[in-house]
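>> Question from a student workshop board

For tomorrow's exercise we were told to take the sequence and the ligand below, predict the bound structure, and bring the output to class. My setup keeps failing. Could a helper post the expected result so I can at least see what it should look like? The ligand is 6-O-phosphono-beta-D-fructofuranose.
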Amino acid sequence: MSSKRKGIKKIGVFTSGGDSPGMNAAVRAVTRAALSHKLEVYGIRRGYQGMIEGDFVRLRSHDVSHIMNLGGTFLQTARSAEFRTEEGRAKAYQNLKEFSIDAVVVIGGDGSFRGALDFTQEYDIPFVGIPGTIDNDMYGTDYTIGFDTALNTVVEAVDKIKDTANSHGRIFFVEVMGREAGLLALKAGIATGSEVIFIPEIKSEEKELEKFLNKGFKNKKHSGIVMVAEGDTAGGAFKIAEKVQTEHPEIEVRVSILGHMQRGGSPSAVDRIAATQMGVAAVEALLEDQKSVMVGLKNDIIVLVPLLKVVKMNRTIDDNLLNIQKVINSV
Ligand code: F6P
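>> Workshop helper replied:
Here is what the output should look like for this input. Compare the format with yours to find the bug.
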C-alpha cells in the first residue's frame, strides 16, 4: 500500500439509486478499510438526498457488524431529483464541508455516477464509485454487486414456475428486471433452460418465439418458459403473451412478473466477496489520489475506470452467450 494521501482524514460513504444485495457488504468493507488507515468514516443516509439534507451518521467498526448477510442497504437509498440541480449540489457540498469530509465513496449504478461526475466537476471533493446494481450493465467491469444474488433469485422462482407450467402444459412468460439491459434475463434464461429470451439489446426474438410455438411446442414440448427483460422492445411479457394468445388460442398462456423480489434477499457469497474486494479497493484508490473513477473487476482483478467512460459507454452483450442459447434450443 502506498503512502496515505495527505489531507484525507474523513471519508463519506453512501448507497444510491436502486438497491442491490451486497451493498451492505460494500459499506462494511469501505468502513473497515478506511478505519484500518486511521480515517474517520461517515455514512450518508438516503443517497444524494441525505447528502443535501445533512443526514450523516458516524460509522465505527461495530456499526457495520452483522450487516454483510443482510439484503437492502442499511444506509437506505434514494433517487434525488434535487441533486440534479446546481442548488442541490451546493447544499450537499456545504454539508460535506461542515462535516469535514474530504473524500467520498458512492455505491450505485450509472445515474449515481453521473451525479458524482457533475459534483466533482464543480467541487474539489474526490469521489470513487463502486458498481452496485442487479442489472450488471456497466461499462468497464465484468461484475456489479447484486447480480449473482438476483440471478439466483430468478432461477429459484422460475424452477418453481416450471413445475406448474409442466403440470398444466402451459407456456409462461416470465418478466424479469432490466429496463435497459438484458444480461439478467439472458443468464437466467440459460440457467433455467428457457425456450426463448427477449432482451432489449436484440430485436428479432419474435421469430424465435414463432419457431418454438409452431415446431417445438407442437411436436415435442408441452410446456415452456419465455424469459422477457422488462425493457424489451416487444413491449413486455403481458404484451407478448397477449399476442401469442390471440394468434394461438389453443395454447394456454400465463404471465409472471417477478418484480422487486429480485432486488432483495441475503447476498450470495459471490456478491459478498465482490463487495468486499471493491470496498477495500475504493478506499485504497482514494488514498492513492484517484478521483472520479469506478472500481471494477475484470477477470477477477481490480481495475479503475474513469467515471466519464463508465457513463458514456454501454456494456455490450456477449455474442457467445446468445449463440449457446440458440444451439441448445435448436433441437
Ligand atoms: O437499475 C436496476 C433496476 O432494478 C432496473 O432493472 C429496474 O428497471 C429498475 O431498477 C426499477 O427500479 P425502481 O422500481 O426502484 O424505480
